[in-house]
Amino acid sequence: MDPIKEVAVKVLDRRKMILVNGVLLALLALSVVGCALLGPVRLDLARAWQNIFAANSDAEILFRARLPRVLLGVAIGGGMAACGVVLQALLSNPLACPQMLGVSGGASLGGILGLIFFPNWLIPIAGGLLGEISWVPLAAFLGALLSMIFVYRFSLFHGRLHPYHLLLSGVIFNAFIAAVIMFLNSIVDFYQAQGLLFWLMGSLSTRAYLTVAFIWGYIVCGFLWLWAKGLSLNLITLGEEAAMQLGVETGTLQRQIFVASSLMIGAMVSVSGMIGFVGLMVPHVMRLIVGGDHRLLLPASFLAGGIFLCWADTLARVLLAPAELPVGIVTAFFGGPFFLYLLYREGGKKPAL
Amino acid sequence: MNPSILVRNLTFAYQDRAVLHGVSLSVEKGEMAGILGPNGSGKTTFIKILSAVLSGQGEVTLNGRNIETYGRRELSKLIAVVPQESRINFPYTAAEIVLMGRAGHHGPFALEGKKDLDVARTSMESTDSLSFSNRYLHELSGGEKQRVLIARALAQEPEILLLDEPSAFLDLKHQLHVFELLRRLNRERGLTIVAALHDLNLAALFFPRLVMLREGKIYRDGSPGEVLTEKTIDEVYGIRVRVERDFSGEKPQLFICPSL
Question: Which of A6, A9, A293, A295 should we substitute to test contact with B (largest number of B Cβ atoms within 10 Å)?
């Protein structure tokens, strides 16, 4: 036999897909249960489960306080990581992250305006039966939509979306918005300013399953849609021309990816504020571990992002209990050094991006 | 039968700077044509228009159909392009890069099947790149990288292969390998090859037909003996050369006379 025939060509196959995603999914499930049980108050799972509908403080804490928060953390972490992956590919830039797209600034400004002008307006859902939701996230989402249109318009030349302009206009738009927010923060009174600052730092605290369910449905749809573009994302990382020549309608792809990730990021920031680092770090780490093929990288990053934020938020809850740390501090604190370590260890073998 | 590539009166300008004016060219199936010309004469633009990355005024038909009626996916199965060099800073192995050439053939959601793997393997075998298929692209030398990119183009199973100065960054030995490979692919698979080239002597040795561009127009079109004359080189490049024959005595070879 020709010796050359024996060279095994290692490529992504079904086995690796199932193995990696299966392991991550199992870890995610364990994390959800583990994080829901961890907290300043010790919970007895058996007791919580026994009298689930009776007045039961264990069940109350588990199902009303911790579980929705953990589930929200998984969705936001996964969504941020997935958006980070596609933006790094779309912009061909290793530093691209969800905070960079302009929508996060728009969402923050919308949320701040909501907090200043109608902090206590509530919208009853189904006549109040399903609870009430605040206007603030809706105002934030509106801000995200407007800024998305604005950034899109400024990056479109001759019907083509330019990654370079997208990056620049997003960064500059965010810097401008940051100044506007500081201005607003300095003209409101002290208590309001404190509230704004807290909202800006981001938090996953929620008791509303309705919000959690909504954001889960929204993020999962967006993620699946992006995942379906996995192969085209691989090709676009080779450069726009190469991608065209390999059969990708690059113009359409760029517009679709921009709109889809902007909508996801807008919704996430609206609900939980700007939680940094997940969208930058998780994609890099997963690229080092599972490789650069987006058909695997995207689901793996989604699951890993969920696991990471789930634990980061748990730490934020317990480290200074009964006080709470902003979760963004925890993500940066643990994410940064770990990322540097991986970069150092793997740096010689693969490019960082 | 329709020619593989038919270009009629093609004009292209970047903003107001005209690059190609009224280029007309016909390339038959199985032909091997080298596009020559100084920097800025429009070679690269011409290759980009043939692969639908740019579109100019005038008509470009492939196998008798206007290029604008092709979808990109369909076009990727007809024409493959080997770039001058490829800046890829994502961690892909050579095999992964070659398999990306199969994107137009399998479904957008599917993983590569056995057929795709077989084609990728054969493509890498014929460009001698199989032995480093599992190494990362950025670890490879310029010559190895170029072989991987040619393998990717072959994995597209195209009828037409376009190359933009495929040997620009290669040493003499690897340049020769690339040209020998192209000639073999042309003879064995009947691949139509159009390549923008800048090494006139290698072009003369390997390409039966040469097209000389000057300032966006076709200046000469014919066999190496017809195109590479002392007069043409002086008129197009503005340098004086002496034209001799190669060892076989058939092909012209240029000797540069420095104007010292």
Answer: A9
Question: Encoding tokens for residue B53?
Answer: 């990355």
Q: Closest approach of chain A CAs to the CA of B240, in angstroms?
A: 37
Q: Is the ipTM, as predicted for this complex, more than 0.85? A: yes
Q: What are phi and psi of A126, to 5 degrees?
A: 50, 50
- DSSP-derived 3-state class of residue B195: strand
Q: What is the mean pLDDT of residues A256-261?
A: 89
Mean local confidence (pLDDT), A175-196:
88
* pLDDT per residue as tens digits for the range B31-43: 999 999 998 889 9
Q: Write the DSSP symbol of residue A134.
A: E
Kindly tell me if the per-residue pLDDT of A4 is higher than 90.
no
pTM, whole model, 2 decimals? 0.88
Which positions in chain B touch A249 (Cβ < 8 Å)?
Answer: 71-72
Report CB contact under 8 Å: B51, A14: no
Name the burial class of residue A120, with classes exposed (0-12), middle (13-18) and buried (19+) by CB atoms within 10 angstroms of its CB: exposed
Chain B residues 66-105 within an 8 A CB cutoff of chain A: 71-77, 79-81, 83, 86-93, 95-97, 99-101, 103-104
Q: Measuring CA to CA, how many Å separate A301 from each of A146, A284, B94, B96, B100?
A: 28, 9, 23, 20, 21
B169: three-class secondary structure by DSSP: coil
* pLDDT (tens digit per residue) in B55-99: 889 999 999 999 999 999 999 999 999 988 777 767 888 999 999
Q: Which residue of B has its CA nearest to A17?
A: B111
Strand order in the sheet with B209-214: B79-82, B160-164, B192-196, B32-36, B209-214, B217-222
Give percent above pLDDT 90 in chain A: 28
Give the distance, in angstroms, between the CA of residue B2 and the centroid of all CA atoms in the same chain: 21
Residues of A in contact with B108 (CB under 8 A): 228-229, 231-232
* CA distance to partner chain B, nearest, from residue A328 (Å): 28
